[in-house]
Amino acid sequence: MFAALSLAPTQLADAAVRRCIGPDGGTIYTDRPCDQFNAREQATAPPSLSPDAVVDLDNPGLVRSDCARGADSLLFDLRRAVESADINAIAGLYHWPGIGGRTAVFVMNRLEDAVADPGATVELVYPESAFVIDDPAAYPDRPVENPSGIRITRYVDAASARQPELLLGLRRHAGCWWIHF
Question: Same domain, yes or no, for 130 and 154?
Answer without folding.
Answer: yes
